[in-house]
Specification:
Elements lengths: L5 E3 L14 E5 L5 E6 L5 H7 L19 E4 L12 H7 L9 E3 L12 E4 L6
Parallel strand pairs: 2-6
Antiparallel strand pairs: 1-3, 2-3, 4-5, 4-6
Length: 126
């Protein structure tokens, strides 16, 4: 993974200079939040892996072949993350507890329009 994919914000970090990068909030199944400044052009999955965010396995490395990067997109963001491809829809049929907000994080490409995006991880990816 490219270390340029994102940077974790420390609690005491001054955010000056970080405002140009979209902030993505990852929420673990247990409720722990990780707020990351993400580089546009990378996927939500790539940024999670580059920053050691638990709960996104990404066994296939982002090729949309395994569904182990399943996330629930906050409903307020569904219209902005794009539509699911036919392949993604088929893979999501294999995950535990899919719903209308289910997406594969490898298929969500970060852009400035996604600044503030919130995704939640399922209890298990397998």
């Amino acid at each position: 993974m490219d270390s340029e994919a994102g940077a974790r914000l420390d609690d005491n970090e001054v955010e000056m200079g970080h405002d140009l990068m979209p902030k993505i909030t990852y929420i673990e199944h247990g409720g722990v939040e990780h707020i990351i400044n993400a580089q546009s052009g990378f996927s939500v999955m790539e940024v999670a892996k580059a920053n050691g965010i638990p709960g996104i396995d990404a066994d296939c490395g982002g090729s949309c072949a395994c569904a182990t990067c399943h996330v629930y997109v906050d409903p307020d963001w569904l219209d902005r993350v794009g539509h699911r491809s036919e392949n993604e829809i088929e893979l999501l049929e294999c995950v535990d507890k899919p719903d209308d907000t289910s997406r594969l994080s490898c298929q969500i490409v970060i852009s400035d329009a996604l600044d503030g995006l919130i995704v939640r991880m399922p209890q298990d990816q397998h």
